Amino acid sequence: MPDVGVRKPQNSLTARFVETVTEPGKHFDGHGLFLRVRANGGKQWVQRITIRGKRSELGLGSPPAVSLAMARKMALENRGKAMLGGDPLAERRQAAAVLTFDAAVETYLAVKLDEFRNEKHRKQWRSTLTTYASPVLGPKRVSEISVQDVLRVLEPIWQTKTETAKRLRGRIENLLSWAAVAGHRKGDNPARWKGNLSEILPKPSKVGKGDNHPALALGDVAGWWAALEGRDGIAAKALQFLTLTAARSGEVRGMTWDEIDFGEKDTNGTAPVATLATSATWTIPASRMKGGREHRVALTPEVVAILKSLPRMDGSPFVFFAPRGGMLSDMSISAVMRRMQESEIKAGRAGFLDPRSKRPAVPHGLRSTFRQWAAERGYQRDMAEIALAHFIGSDVERAYQRSDMLERRRAMMADWGAFLRNDSFLAVNTMRLA
Fold first, then answer.
1. Among 183, 210, 237, where does a domain finish?
2. Residue 415 above 90 pLDDT?
3. What is the pTM of this model?
4. Which of 6, 42, 56, 276 could pair with 38 as two cysteines, CB 3.0-4.6 Å apart?
């Protein structure tokens, strides 16, 4: 049946219209081709076509990776195949069954690289995909790549190598758009920025202006930790706890006593610290987590000792409470690090600076310091990412991988504590769980 009331003249769209249109709906061109614009701003080329007497819709990718001219060319080719009795939809489904990301890179670049006259650009395209994307996405079928998979590629470098990460995202988007056009995947492009990754990652312009969190250099860790241990006050204790657990400031400041399970209870206060933490766990409810998912933190003997040393305020549920019993402010923890930096400067030293930006380290940057330490000590990537409460793997992988490696993480965090204290006799064991 023909489309009554929706047909438009052939080639009725323009490249400018495709670039600027924001009105949700279907905007028709010719040969059954139309641009679908979603309420969130996402755009997709779709072709209505009759294949062997059956009405079908084919996704042809998304702009700007697929231009209006490219979409028209593909629509015309599909129409020609269908008129000759072919089935472009079946061809795409068959092709989608086996193509991996690494194979897609080779196939795509064989065509794409010819567009660049600049040899530097050709090398950068391949280098960024090979260096950053392939270790995570390489063996995955392009049909199975999700938003979380793309985030696993981008998040480790989004703050520290923003321009590279920005270009890499665009290259992954283009590659997956090509894969969709070629029939190797269907659905939304997981690397799309607007209305997709833009809702999860900070804007590149914001990060690029230096809003990333300065981290503590690994070589400064022992000196910084010794200086921190010499400070009194509940904010200093909160900063110690934050560092030892690699948690976010808000998670620590909002922690309540009922979230903590000390495991083997010490009823008289005389048991050795080591026996208090064999199974001590801090469970952060989903409502307080950035990712909206419950997170367990393995508490080491040193962390338990900090908790046991803290006073409690009647009527306040918070572990680290403000003077009036409410939640400790973020500025209180930041002020501890700021005063530590000021003390260093007064002593004639440069202080504790981020090795890249040369700016004073801040509490949130300690998570980056921990992540760098875990990587350099050879700890399994997923285990370190779980410790930071980052999403790991695709939705399917997470459905099958139910373990959060709690006990293995407990040993890793004990070694992290040893590194902070510069305990050489423990530091030599940091490779044992790699």
1. 210
2. yes
3. 0.50
4. 42
